[in-house]
Amino acid sequence: MKIEELSEEFDTSVKVSEDGHPQLQSQPNANIPPPADLLTQAMNAISSQYTTTSAQDGTQTPSLPPGIASMRDKTGPEILAELNKSPLFMTELEENDDLEAIRALAYEGTPEEVAAGFKERGNECFAEKKWKDAKEFYTKGIQVLLLEVRKRQRGDSHPLASTSNTDATPAPAGSRENEPPTMDPKEIKNELSILETTLVNRAACHLSLQNYRSATLDCAHALRLNPSNVKAFYRSARALLALNKIAQADDACARGLELDPENAALKAVAQEIIKKNEQETAKQKKEQERVIRKRKEEMMLKTALTARGIKTRKTAQPPEMEDACIALVPDPLSPESSLSFPAVLLYPLHLESDFIKAFNETESLALHLEYILPLPWDQQRVYTPNGVECYMETITGGLVKVGKKVPLLKVLGQGNVEIVDEVVRIFVVPKGRSEEWVAEFKRKKAAEKKT
């Protein structure tokens, strides 16, 4: 065991009470502020390690390093927001030139070389029909070059050079070394050329992946760099044609052919556009004819109903009947055609019903009762063609008896009944209970009018 001798200054530097425990000086607890958040406490703890003498009163006040002093008066959330701007402490990614520069450092070479490398990798994947992988490589190359464009627009120095040479000695004030380095025009031209080509290549990937809108955007950006890029016009025309934007596709194709009249790919697209335009024109013409015919049919039907004195009414919530409707048959446009109505037979005493899709105006109710009755649920066999009475509700809420051998037109043309939501409603009641049901129906209607 090694024993070290304590210096004589030790007992003067440490004062111990008689009971062997260090004496703690009590501090007044008046006006103690409430505890701050953890970040503020940490900042206060650091501030206690740095003191300086005030020039006015000679008191000792906290003095922080410049980096920490800038955050001295900020709250915890504000400090976190500042830290998130630094790539080292980021918890969320945002558009940040410093971050992009650090990403670029992962690849050796100038931005032009890095972007060219990504483009070549993308070309290799594209040749193997790996569209998604090719698109990713093209996107990385575009990001590298767009970072350079943003830097030049602000007049900043080369991002890779400024990031990698962090230990360089600053040049004296007024020296030309402090000025942002001027880019070689040839280097800028090469970068923009690579950016243009990569955008057009990525547009080809979008076409293969059927991302047509993205393809048009990439072609538009490429044409801003070079308005004479024939491939951009070609791929833009193809994407616009796939989006059924025929006029725009035709414009893009025409502009491309102005630059290269013998371009076989553009000629092929031009033929596709012509064919598509013919199809769309025929489709539009057919739709217009359908609309005109429907309008004529509606007008003819309305005229036929008015001429026969048949009243109709629609409610806010008509029933679902698929294609069943009032119509002139066999020719909706012929004045010699007869009217056909959807009809429903209601059995109110048993809460059942039957639907007749087409009840012609010349037909009688007996014609339909013959094949509908007897009913499968009628165990007592009270519903027979000769054993039932039929009624229709009038406009005023009463009832009118319908003769079973009378044509439907004669019943509807009396003017005291109406067709609601294009459906003829007929109540079917056994003769033995018809008077009872009619009285109950009138009683309910009278009660409804009072309320």
TrEMBL record:
Pfam families: Wheel
Annotated region (Disordered), positions in chain: 1-72, 154-185
Biased composition (Acidic residues): 1-11
Bias kind Polar residues: ranges: 41-62
Biased composition (Basic and acidic residues): 176-185
Annotated Cns1/TTC4 wheel domain residues: 331-441
Entry GO MF terms: Hsp70 protein binding; Hsp90 protein binding
A single GO BP: protein folding
GO CC terms in record: cytosol; nucleus
CDD domains (alphabetical): CTWD_TTC4
Annotated InterPro entries: Csn1/TTC4_wheel, TPR-like_helical_dom_sf, TPR_rpt
Gene3D superfamilies to which the protein is assigned, alphabetical: Tetratricopeptide repeat domain (1.25.40.10)
Domain of life: Eukaryota
Swiss-Prot/TrEMBL keywords: Repeat, TPR repeat
Family statement: Belongs to the TTC4 family.
Protein name (record): Cns1/TTC4 wheel domain-containing protein
Organism: Scytalidium lignicola (Hyphomycete)
